[in-house]
Amino acid sequence: DLLAERNVLGVDNRVNWNQTVYPYNAIVKIEWVGKKLCSGVLVGPRQVATSRQCAPAIGQTGQTFKFMPNYYFGERYPSAGMINWYMPTMVGFGDCGVKDDWAIFILNARLGDTMGYFGAKNLDPATQLNGAQFFNYGWPQDRSAGGMQPTRQEAISVTALGTGCEPGGSLQTNADSGPGQLGGPLWAVESGSRYLYGVLQNEYRSDYTPFAGGDRLVAAVIKTRQDFP
């Protein structure tokens, strides 16, 4: 049915959201021109983390992207394009494939200087499983005028980790999602700071909602900040 196809788990807890402050200004609607719409998050002055499925294959050229901070019925802040992107070499299938199903774009403008950006961390199973402490934000096309305004969900729980892929694992959650949210951030607030734990990997599963994340994503955030200051 429709709810299963768009992966709403029980009650739809997504809320239409319109706040022009951090951290929401650091979350971007991604337009892959002629291909698809995704969501993503600034993790550096010009680094955006999103799903691997929102990025071209390695060596693919001639692709046009637009990154629009906190899009709301149109662009309300300066947008940016892409000059490069990074994806990890896939090391497995199943849960391990999900864990590494992310990409980092390098932008042609330092949007993070004005919009802010997130840190990145690995999940601590001892303190963060089943804790209803995570947030998600994105542009679902099944809600909010076809993805013209963002939705926010709070009190999301990471209910399990994928097996054999620690530290970090693939993250199984009870988040609600739909097309357009792919690549959107799963984050938590710690001591007033926002930390990314994963990006939405699949917006259609009906049993749980998976996020890609873990040690390799955290390391890539650090490295891309160093390589593309």
Automatic annotation (TrEMBL):
Organism of origin: Podospora didyma
N-terminal signal peptide: none
Any one GO molecular-function label of the UniProt entry: serine-type endopeptidase activity
All residue ranges annotated as the Peptidase S1 domain in the record: 26-200
Protein name per its UniProtKB record: Trypsin-like cysteine/serine peptidase domain-containing protein
A GO BP annotation: proteolysis
Pfam families associated with the record: Trypsin
